[in-house]
Design goal:
flat, mainly alpha, single chain, 71 residues
């Protein structure tokens, strides 16, 4: 139950990270079912890359917001 609460907090407060991770997860599951050469172990780095892309997206959005606040 705690993991569900953590997921909801992630999607509420840091929605860019949650959306990019969720999209990467859906793509990884689709590729693993559609392509026989794409195993689940190939999906793990894909989801990690999606999480990293979400972190970069969130960081750039926060830094641009802070730059506008200092003006």
């Amino acid at each position: 139950m705690d993991s569900v609460v953590d997921l909801l907090v992630l999607l509420t407060l840091h929605w860019r990270v949650g959306i990019s991770t969720l999209i990467a997860l859906v793509v990884a599951v689709f590729l693993s079912t559609a392509l026989t050469a794409f195993s689940g172990w190939f999906g793990v780095p894909l989801v990690i890359l999606g999480f990293g892309a979400g972190l970069l997206w969130e960081g750039s959005a926060l830094s641009s917001t802070r730059q506008h606040d200092h003006r």
